[in-house]
Amino acid sequence: METMDKETLKEEIKKQIKYRFRKNIEDASKQEVYQGICYALKEMIIDEWIDTHKKYETLDSKMVYYLSMEFLMGRALGNNLINFGAYKEVAEVIEELDAGDLYHIEEEEPDAALGNGGLGRLAACFMDSLATLGYPAYGCGIRYRYGMFRQEIENGYQKEMPDEWLKNGNPFEIERPEYAVEIKFGGHVDAEYNENGKMYFVHRDYESIQAVPFDMPIVGYQNGVVNTLRVWDARPMHSFDLDSFDRGNYAKARENKNNARSIVEVLYPNDNHETGKQLRLKQQYFFVSASLQTAVKKYMQRHDNICGLADKVCFQLNDTHPTVAVAELMRILMDEYGVEWEQAWKITTKCCAYTNHTIMAEALEKWPIALFSSLLPRVYQIVEEIHRRFTEEIKAFFGDDQDILSRMSILYDGQVHMARLAIAGSFSVNGVARLHTEILKNQELSDFYKLTPEKFNNKTNGITQRRFLVHGNPELSDWITKQIGAGFITNLPELEKLTALADDKKKMKEFAEIKANNKKRLAAYIQEHNGIEINVNSMIDCQVKRLHEYKRQMLNILYVITLYQEMKENPGKKYCPRTVLFGAKSAPGYERAKLIIKLINNVADTVNNDKSIKNQLKVVFIEDYKVSNAELIFAAADLSEQISTASKEASGTGNMKFMLNGAITIGTMDGANVEIVEEVGRENAFVFGLSSDQVIEYEHNGQYKAIEIYNENPKLKKALDSLVDGTFIKEGEDKNLFQGLHQALLYGQHSNIADRYFVLADYDSYMDAQKQAEELYMNPEEWNRKAFLNVCHAGKFSSDRTIEEYASEIWRLKSII
Ligand SMILES: *Cc1c(COP(=O)(O)O)cnc(C)c1O
């Protein structure tokens, strides 16, 4: 907030470049100028960073620790400049110094991609909102050496490349070696007795690893607050301990020294899918134990009784990934502070709160007991006792019912069920959109809901408008500011005030021009990165999100194929010009998803090179979808594809980013789409498809027959059969390349369920919705009006609203502003 005058700013940037790179600014590379600006900005925020934490200490504020395996931050510089209130000054200064323009200098920064997709991006949005609202909070995570892989497309196939995001250093972070803590793995536990005959547990022959925190500033929006994202790095303990784990074997001890770093080597690139790898559990315990030890120690510096912990500390578990926190907190309380079980359990279940992000079976975390207990022997003992007591509680409530026990037991079938442990150990269990929470209560977690209904609550997700409007769409943000002032930047519902302009022809023309300019900006990006020229007057139709069968990119590409076939059959007819954008990374081991990427690219190739359709349709696969290019895409989009199988997408947040930027949703009644349509009105969206109740009913009764739909629908049959008739096969490729996709939809493969995600069931209504979209687009004024109304009614979907709800209803935090 306390920005410098421009001359001081110039001197500061020049000084940073000189001392860091031994260069004058005229000789510095763009990367060096970028770093110079970062370090200058870091100097400006450092006092507020220190003061914020002083204030938390002085006020003895209750603090939330947001525990998350993932923080999908994207780039920091632009966001920090905006929130600090120095963006425009710095942009001017850079030009005056003749050092390039800020927009291009920002591109020097690699995305901090410490996350897969929605879940990690949610954590990043929450960090921004917490700081902006002045809430005492730490983000706690892992400082992966390599984040989400960089995606290259080669011959239409995804290729994964390492993400070397730390190659040029990370200017905003600060290493805090003085706060390093010890983390213990393996070994065994002995029960011993003290002189009073009281039993205690000694952990022996373990391997020690040092956790070293790196702090990154989270700048609140022009409010003087700077919070901290603390990510942990792993190191070998200083002098490796020959005594404790490997007496006399020096070489082997050296080897373990290298193993330490492997814990934080890389982010697991699976979205909504768990593979049960030991290293993954090691990552989880590593950052959870480090964060909890630190939080408890910090609390004890200002308080003398550990029993008051829950008055000052809350741990929010972002999905089940940090669930080991429940048992680890019990261990710290009992083994390190001598608290008795009952008391420790009271404290733990007042400190922990759990957010559920999915109900899909393949995403549920389960650990084989053998693996869990050998890696974390003391923690496992505690899990066993939690299980024993929880089982008693279940039996007392439901009776001795084996069915119920099979659905609720923490230890079951040789595995530790993490969601069950999280629910048992938390005072709050929340879903991330209204529909999702209802499904949790009435279906997936209905037994738990019956046992403890008071724990369950909903917190519909949100996104930060500072990044996805003010930074990502500066032209629209400035225009809105001219119309209604800048209040929306911290109070998004103020966008409602714009509604009055919907009937003002001149204003609506200005709004349309901004979208047109954003399309040009995106077209330049696509020209540069894909070498494809797109029609900026065409409908920009976007599906950007992780590649997953439940998200149904398949349904989208089937529509593209249908449209292409129609164009070929009607050569004289004029169609609504469309550019269909896909952006999606697939998990490297997810073969079917990777094949869908290949299919999209082959369809793109065929369609884009077919002169007979006269450029009325283009298909573009945007390589390496990530936060920074996402910002460009949202700003330029006309149509937002949110077409998951109803009940499968817990919330979605991409849907909200599109809405905020004036794209119209074509979507199913799934996740937060339900609430988006409720806010904007059904007439301002294109809704289609089975309801979640219908999907769930089909899943229960097994009556769904994809093949019948195929046989009865010639258009669909023609589109689907083009996958196996060679239409999209290129020279030299196996003509059966896409047969597996065809098979999976009609007959089922592996899972033996045909069309698990009801693509064919929704095909017809999706076609109808697409036709409505095309018709509307041919009437630009009407389209523009509806797109504009989406912006006006996006107020609910700010993560500021979400965080206010968490703070008042779960965390009971007080803002310092
Ligand atoms: C918002 C966002 C997501 C989540 O998108 P969904 O459509 O909700 O799945 C994933 N990746 C990036 C880079 C994002 O910005």
From TrEMBL:
General function of this protein: Phosphorylase is an important allosteric enzyme in carbohydrate metabolism. Enzymes from different sources differ in their regulatory mechanisms and in their natural substrates. However, all known phosphorylases share catalytic and structural properties.
Reactions catalysed, as given in the entry: [(1->4)-alpha-D-glucosyl](n) + phosphate = [(1->4)-alpha-D-glucosyl](n-1) + alpha-D-glucose 1-phosphate
Name listed for the protein in its UniProt record: Alpha-1,4 glucan phosphorylase
InterPro entries: Glycg_phsphrylas, Glyco_trans_35, Pyridoxal_P_attach_site
One GO biological process term: glycogen catabolic process
Gene Ontology CC terms, in alphabetical order: cytoplasm
UniProt cofactor(s): pyridoxal 5'-phosphate
Annotated positions of the N6-(pyridoxal phosphate)lysine modification: 657
Membership in a protein family: Belongs to the glycogen phosphorylase family.
Gene3D superfamilies: Glycogen Phosphorylase B
Catalytic class of the enzyme: transferase
Keywords associated with the record: Allosteric enzyme, Carbohydrate metabolism, Glycosyltransferase, Pyridoxal phosphate, Transferase
EC number(s) from the headed UniProt entry: 2.4.1.1
Entry-linked CDD domains: GT35_Glycogen_Phosphorylase
MF terms (GO), sorted A to Z: glycogen phosphorylase activity; pyridoxal phosphate binding
Tagged with keyword Glycosyltransferase: yes
